[in-house]
Amino acid sequence: MSFIAKPRIDHPGLPKNALGLTRRDYEGSMSTLCAGCGHDSVTAAIVEAVWGLAIRPEQVAKLSGIGCSSKTTAYFVGGGHGFNAVHGRMPSIATGAIAANRDLYYIGVSGDGDTLSIGFGQFAHAIRRNIDMLYIIENNGVYGLTKGQFSASADIGSQAKRGEVNLQPPVDPVLTALTLGCTFVARSFSGDKQQLVPLIQAGLQHRGFALIDVLSPCVTFNDHEGSTKSWRYVRENYEEVVHADYVAAAREITVDYAAGEATEVRLHDGGRIVLRKLDASYDPTHRGRALNYLREKLRQGEHVTGLIYIDQKSPEFHEVNNTSDMPINRIPYERLTPGAKGLAKILSRYR
Amino acid sequence: MLHAPDAQTRVNDFVLKLANVNGTGSASANALVLKSIFRMGVPVVGKNYFPSNIQGLPTWYEIRVTRAGYAARSGHVDIMVAMNAETYARDLKEVSPGGYLLYDSTWPRPALLKREDVALFGVPLARLCNETFEGVRARILLKNIMCAGVLAALLDIDLDIMRTLLGETYASKKALLDANVRALEMGHAYARAHLPCPLPLKVAPLPGELSRTAGHIMIDGNTAAALGCLYAGATVGAWYPITPSTSLMDAFRSLCEQWRVDPETGRRDFVVVQAEDELAAIGAVIGASWNGARAFTPTSGPGISLMNEFIGLAYYAEVPAVIFDIQRVGPSTGMPTRTQQCDLLLAAYASHGDTRHVLLFPADPQECFYMAVAAFDLAERLQTPVFVMSDLDIGMNDWMCPMLEWDESYRPDRGKMLTLEEIESLDKFHRYVDLDGDGIPYRTLPGIHPKGAYFTRGSGHTQFGAYTEDAAEYQQVVDRLKRKFETAKTLVPQAVFRGCDGRDAAIVSLGSCDGAVCEALDVLARRGIHLDYMRVRAFPFGPEVEEFLATHARIFVVEQNRDAQLRSLLILETAVDKRKLRSILHYSGLPISSSSIVDGVLAELDTLAPVRSAVL
Predict the structure, then answer these.
(1) CA–CA dist A42, A53 (Å, integer)
(2) Searching chain B, which residue's CA lies closest to the CA of residue A332?
């Protein structure tokens, strides 16, 4: 564990985003995770994605639970508030925070233990409420901080470092989210920045609950022969089904797509997600078919990645509640109280 | 024709109890009788003893007519309305000698139990209803109203007031109104023709200047607390339904729908989250408070048990939160529809590790209103969870209290919350540094300025908010938290005192015991036993509590739990000699009665002969 303050090195030639900020402005404190941890790659992807979208750092609120993954919210966007909640309960903190201020970008970072075991209930209900946040699971199939127990996402037959074989079926967060009505469901791999960065951007701009399950190998406890969450296994067994690129409203598409290969999803902020289908038969706007496709590939031992499902029509939490546009934490007190006259009126029925 | 036994005439001073089967619509008839007496200018107390059930189990409603304006149960029943065959025997047994019992004589009941010292009145309510009204449901419901008409005749309750009240209830339902008025009048006429009306126990109106209820309202504590939340500017409520707290959020929601919705757009200035459980409810409160909204959760003991981990986080990370604990009988599921004060220790030290929390103890709905507002101010001023420790008796029963008033100059105390300009002017922001020496640090809200950003965590942290496992850095923060708790003593509502004339013996109590204690003090005084009285209104205890405990030699601690939790808290948190504290405990699940306190004090005095001489 490192207690060294992270040195800040600004090179005058560093590229700047639309706000004039460099990637350095979106970093956080020094990571204390193991060298080579997949989570640090996810952190780097988040920095890249938020910088690329030119979001003001203070507009980002970072929320997490407990575990290795949950520590990472300290390692990116130091100019935004962070909240390291209790184990498995970050979704409820997010619910309250989002209720109070609908104007911020909320990034939740959790792990497979935090989300799929102790926090399974809260995860499910955050999806149900369709709160407007990006929820990243850094999924490595193992409990790292307590040194190597299987998590609920460990596959049947996957082997622990000490040789024990997992016999219980896994909980798949992507299948779960699809079943629960999640409006943005993606899977990615911490070793594939090309795929992950635009997914994070699309998830941040999605209106509603955006889930990205990131396979993020644990180099210390789950990176051996026999594990289905090792670097090698994931690299060899992941299949991108739909590649998503986020295109901001002001930007033109600069990549050329072959005719018929790309489709667009318009977002509420005016931006677009350009989807490149790598399997022509796949439809990321059809929940039932997405589920079937995933189940079939899982049976073959393959991790389907990319933007698996998107629904831009379902109302998010505040639309359902019909909340005022002004974040309710900014509404002046005078607008909230009926005053002395109002009280007399209210109490007249209690005479 | 039956004749009244030779009971003393007890005008405006008696107890009426109605035994019913729940789910038969007795509640509206009970409320009609209660409210009518109240509008006649006569103080009343209404207590509902209901089952944790929707339909078919016994339920009782007790109306105490009390010209002295006492707020508690007396512990006696003078007239029983026995409408539930299942509980008839015990209902009859409960009536005081010289009292009355009213029953439905539709069916022949040769085997009915009798008592020589109780007058039995039969009225064929079901037969009359069946002859007059159509529809099974209507007949059942109107039977209760007809019974209210009988009571109006027996007790001399003003029929015009009852008609007016029905008119207010069914203002937009003419057919229902007509049927109700008809049932009421039929019951009244039948009683006038067949029973000795009025009884010596009766209600005499106190009109105009004589009124003892003018300037007062009848309101339950949960509604009053919800009003407090509205006036405190709370915008986020998160909860999981649990008896007896549910009506608090129901009231808050309906108040918000009335006052916080833009009439043109329908947009709402509030969010109510019905969470998946109490863990999520308190999580949402903490998340919203952290983000600058005033947020609260109403719950009861089982909910507090579930919330413990999060409460510890809010304490240590210093996030405001307001929690209403409407206490019910424990342990475990206990008796969900019965009252107790059994969560005092649970709330005071909720969560693992060294934690201590601010508790407020309202005694009635009026205090629920003002303390709800105070709870939000204290939670933000102290940056910590604050509990409002109400109970089922206060929360769900209608209490007579002075009209609530609102000071228009009130503005929420947001505590030490830095503005954008203040953050900009800082060289560097440090979240947990004690700049003012009162143990309270400065906080910033997300979304304001990158210089204000910090990391909120439940793990060990330095005064700058950074992670630490260093002994000195850890202790610096938890020692400051202890200083903050000392500051809390100067901010919480002070104890209130009665009759403190330097006597040797006293009663200490809290919350909903107050009405019963005040009445018991009067009764004891008439017997020549004079006691001082202190009602604590908050934890931590202020210096005034210490002083009172120090200056009294014998102290009766009255509370509604088995294990003397207030006494324990006093012993743990003040310098009092525990041998001075004698407990008077009531934990049956029914609200404490004045007679149980009188009996308790007398019994203690008997066992403590030397003390008795000191007191008398």
Answers:
(1) 16
(2) B233
ipTM for the whole complex: 0.95
Following DSSP, what letter does each residue of A182-233 receive, concatenated? Answer: -SEEEEEETT-HHHHHHHHHHHHHSSSEEEEEEE---TTTS-STT-TTSHHH
* pTM of the entire predicted model: 0.95
Distance from CA of A205 to the nearest CA of B (A): 17
Encoding tokens for residue A135?
A: 């929820």
Subunit contact A100:B255, Cβ cutoff 8 A: no
- Domain-located, residue A117: yes
> Which residue carries 């699309």 as its tokens?
A202
B231 chain-A contacts, CB cut-off 8 A: 337-338, 343
Q: Is A250 within a domain?
A: yes
Q: Which domain holds residue A105?
A: 23-347
Q: Which residues in chain B are closer than 8 Å to A57, comparing Cβ atoms?
A: 450, 453
Closest Cβ–Cβ partner in B233, B444, B456 for A84: B456
pLDDT tens-place string over residues B574-613 = 999 999 999 999 999 999 999 999 999 999 887 655 444 4
Residue of B235, B261, B461 for testing the chain A interface, max A β-carbons within 10 Å: B235
Write out chain B residues lying below 8 Å of A133, CB-based: none
Fold of B13-213: Pyruvate-ferredoxin Oxidoreductase; domain 3 (3.40.920)
The superfamily CATH assigns to domain B219-402 is Thiamin diphosphate (ThDP)-binding fold, Pyr/PP domains (3.40.50.970)
Q: What CATH number does residue A166 fall under? A: 3.40.50.970
Query: What parts of chain A have a pLDDT lower than 70?
Result: 1-5, 250-261
Give the pairing type, strands B95-104 and A142-143. unpaired
Instruction: Determine the angle formed by the axes of helices B159-169 and B136-155, rounding to 10 degrees.
Output: 150
In this prediction, residue A249 carries a pLDDT of 72
Place of tokens 């006038």: B192
pLDDT above 60 for B62: yes
Instruction: Give the model's confidence band at B111: pLDDT under 50 very low, under 70 low, under 90 confident, else very high.
Output: low
CB pairs under 8 A between A and B: 219
Total count of domains within chain A: 1
- In tens, the pLDDT along A186-231 reads 999 999 999 999 999 999 999 999 999 999 999 999 998 888 889 8
What is the distance in angstroms between the Cα of B273 and the nearest Cα belonging to chain A?
A: 8
Beta bridge partner(s), residue B511: none
Task: Please identify, in words, the CATH class of the domain defined by B496-615.
Answer: alpha beta
Q: How far apart are CA B451 and CA B429, in angstroms?
A: 7
List CB contacts (< 8 A) between B461 and chain A.
none
Across the interface, whether the CB atoms of A86 and B411 are under 8 A apart is answered: no
| Residue ranges of chain B that CATH labels 3.40.50.920 | 496-615
Place of tokens 């969900």: B336
Running DSSP on this structure, what letter comes out for residue B601? H
What is the distance in angstroms between the Cα of B441 and the nearest Cα belonging to chain A? 17
According to CATH, where is 3.40.920.10 located in chain B? 13-213
A14 falls within a domain: no
Q: Do B283 and A122 touch (CB under 8 A)?
A: yes
